[in-house]
Amino acid sequence: MTDLARVTAVKHLGARALSITFSDGLVRELDFADALPGVLASIDDDESFAAAAVDSVAGTVAWPNGIDLDPDVLHGDQQAAAATQPRLLREYRLERTG
User: Fold this and answer.
1) Chain segment 4-31, per-residue pLDDT in tens
2) Rg (CA), the chain
3) Which of 20, 21, 43, 53 has the smallest C-beta neighbourhood within 10 Å, fewest atoms?
């Protein structure tokens, strides 16, 4: 059985974009503009969205108000339940050193 990839780092890139690093070395830059409907609208402002951080227990991206996102969806392994999806800006893998 393989371990599921989980979020190890998140960086706010500006506006509604995040760079998300996963435990398997994958880095995905995602743009969430127009992809924050319903309850996610509570993080659809500059200050709230920029507060994204890693929830080390759940292994995903979370916000101080309790909103978190499915790490399997962020990784690209599953489709989100919502009709709107974040737009993939860039994807690459970190090279292992040593």
Assistant:
1) 899 999 999 999 999 999 999 999 999 9
2) 13
3) 53
pTM, entire model: 0.91
Sign of the CA dihedral 49, 69, 80, 31? positive
pLDDT, tens digit, 9 for 90 and up, residues 47-92:
999 999 999 999 999 999 999 999 999 999 888 877 788 999 999 9
Range of the domain at 50: 7-83
> What are the angstrom distances between the C-alpha of 7 and each of 27, 38, 57, 72?
9, 24, 10, 10
- Inside any domain, residue 71: yes
Q: What number of other Cβ atoms are within 10 A of residue 80's Cβ? A: 14
